[in-house]
Amino acid sequence: MRPYQEEYIANLKDIVMLTARKKPAGQDFEEYVKGLLQNRLQAEQKVKRNMELLREGVFPLLDRLFEAGAEELRELQEFAGNLLSGTQELDVGLFCQIHQALLSLARSQRDQAGIIRELYWMGIGRNSICNKLIGLDSAKSEKYVFQMRLCFTEAAAYLKYYDALEDAETRGYIFRSRANMALGKFRSVSDKIRLLKQTLQIMQDKEYQEKTPQLPWERYIYMTHQLMASSISYDRENTMTPQDITALMESVYIVYQRRLQEAEKNGEPKPIRSAFHYYAMEYYCGLNTLDELLTNMEKLMDAADLSDFSGESMYGIISIPAFYCQYLQEFPEKIPERKEYIDTLYQRISYYVDRFPDANENESLFLYLRQLSYTFVEMENSISYKKFLQRMQMRFAPEVFVHSHAVGNAAQVLCRILLEEEPAFFDDMEHIRRIRDREEKKKAVLEYARECGILHDVGKINFMNLYSRTGRQWFEEEYEMAHMHTMVGEACLKTRESTRDFAPIAQGHHRWYDGSGGYPDEYIRLSCPYRQMVDVIGLADWLDNVTEADRLYTGIEKNFDEAVASAVEMGGRRFSPLLTARLSDKKVAQEICKALAEGRREAYYQLFTAGKGRAL
Questions:
Q1: Average pLDDT over residues 150-164
Q2: What is the pLDDT of residues 347-374, one digit of tens each?
Q3: Does residue 242 have a cis bond before it (omega within 30 degrees)?
């Protein structure tokens, strides 16, 4: 790689460490906060330096790519490979930008091998993006899945030119792309299984194998069987046909037997992932009851070693519980007898995650936790979904955690002022309207405002690479992706008792007051009984974003007075005129400024106490 490329990669790794949650390490609180602020300043400086590197090195190279020599192109490919590799995701956005440019170059030169290779890597980048969309309805994520699958499908279509493409590596990309067409969501599990059956038939064709014997055919076939084994449908709405089950049985058995042999040969414990797929198939084949499947899953989860941070143990401790909870959601009558076990399960997960080394660099860990947040079963006398999400924020997105507390604090100030003038201001919300006592109502509104602030951005957990680990300003497509945090947040919050009242806040806080801008379109202000609180959170969120939280990745920087002036100017359009009228009062603006600062400090203290091992 070129020196500027090496520097960019080093800066990305430094930013990940600088923005991660820190433990006090013998510091007192003031020293701890000072260290966090210094880290944030260093991260900002590295982001600015990375933007210089992009403008001076990467972007000019992409602009003159048609003139670049072979060595420059090789170095650029190596650079891209360091941005996204295996379980480490440093900058998938730039990874996709580079491979898109290389794809355009290959198309212009009619370089079939280059087209196939770049389509494959574009598909890999798009798949990484799709993994962030867990919890969204298929209709909202299908655009990204389609883009990913289109890359793999076009690359796989070059199979018809197999004989003309004599390079073994290029032929390998074709087969890998063919298998990867099965990644992502499918409207029907049968469609995915049919696709994988066809892929296995192609890979097992002796003619292809004899023409390119140097390809790792056994590995390709085995990994396709793994994809097939993971295709089991776990919900009632996406049932499998007898033909699907037959195809799955073969793959599940092949993978399970091979993993058993490998484990025995290496002296390892029983393979957890493949065992789960095997037990699930026994259930779908009618060989075991649901109770027997759940019991077998419990044995696998209990056998996972809390001190082992390998992929296998991670799967047993976090991913299988996600599937376990999904079964319980489908069959809620099974929950009462398992309440104690589920509570223990959550405690194990919390213990494991908190001790996971280099957690901020492990994409598999993030994926499994996103799965769990989607299927989480909430029960009385156990950790609430609300508390679970707060712990996720604190552990993996500390800057989002701090921002959310600042917003909650500022929202309380605005609500207090509104209630003093009009005690029934928030009575459109049923849970507030039914409180008769004026002081009790005020107390409830202020507490609700605080928690709305804390939870309004929970959807950002799915996009931590954009919000907490960004190493540059966003590309246009990333702004579009970032907008989806509102839909992810709403989808998560609306299905649990402890968070249901916060779902409209997560959905609507970026939508403009008059409906002329912002996102998402699905939020209709006048149809929402929570609209007054959405307005409050929307204003408080914007004020903190433009003065503190967003400047790392948007490049927008305002001081508080400038932000207030802009907000007042947008009253009646972006923000509620009832709120901006109060904000124009200098005394109120000063109160809000103070509340934002105090909220951030309170959040830092929670991070401090959590780092010292004290209960939250």
A1: 96
A2: 999 999 888 876 545 778 888 998 999 9
A3: no
Closest C-alpha among 431, 439, 388, 389 to residue 533 = 431
Q: Inform me whether the pLDDT recorded for 238 exceeds 60.
A: no
The bridge status of strand 84-85 relative to strand 88-89 is: antiparallel
Residue linked to tokens 């005394």: 587
Q: What's phi and psi for 309, nearest 5 deg? A: -110, 25
Give the contacts of 161 (CB within 8 A, at least 6 positions apart): 112
Angle of helix 3-19 relative to helix 29-53, nearest 10 degrees, comes to: 150
User: Which of these, 341, 230, 227, 345, lies nearest to 280 by C-alpha position?
Assistant: 230
- Check residue 382 and give left, alpha or beta (phi > 0: left; psi -120 to 50: alpha): beta
DSSP assignment of 201-263:
HHHT-HHHHHH-TTS-HHHHHHHHHHHHHTT---SGGGPPPHHHHHHHHHHHHHHHHHHHHHH
Interhelix angle 398-421/586-611, rounded to 10 degrees, is 140
**Distance (Å, whole) CA 497 – CA 79:** 47
What three-state secondary structure class fits 428?
coil
Element counts in the chain: helices (H) and strands (E): 31, 2
Q: Which residue type does 472 have?
A: R
* Spatial contact of 446 and 412, defined as CB atoms under 8 Å apart: yes
% of the chain beyond a pLDDT of 90: 75
For residue 461, the number of C-alpha atoms closer than 13 Å in the C-beta half-sphere is 35
State the DSSP string of 438-492: HHHHHHHHHHHHHHHHHHTTGGGGGGHHHHTS--SPPPHHHHHHHHTHHHHHHHH
3-state class of 36 per DSSP?
helix
327/291 Cα distance (integer angstroms): 10
Task: Give the model confidence (pLDDT) of 506-520 as tens digits.
Answer: 999 999 999 999 999
Of the candidates 541, 547, 544, the residue with the CA atom closest to the CA atom of residue 559: 547
| Cβ neighbours of residue 352 closer than 8 Å, sequence gap 6 or more | 306, 317, 318
* Three-state DSSP string of 72-85: HHHHHHHHHHHHEE
Rounded to an integer, the average pLDDT of 328-340 is 94
Q: Where is average pLDDT lowest: 18-22, 125-129, 486-490?
A: 18-22
Go through the chain and tell me how many residues it has. Answer: 616
Confidence of residue 614 (pLDDT cuts 50, 70, 90): very low
Question: What are the tens digits of pLDDT across the range 427-450?
Answer: 999 999 999 999 999 999 999 999
Distance CA 49, CA 3 (A): 13
Q: What are phi and psi of 521, to 5 degrees?
A: -65, -25
Exposed, middle or buried: residue 19 (CB in 10 Å: 0-12, 13-18, 19+)? buried
pLDDT, mean over the chain: 91
The answer to whether 294 and 287 have CB atoms below 8 angstroms apart is: no
CB of 165 closer than 8 Å to CB of 158: yes
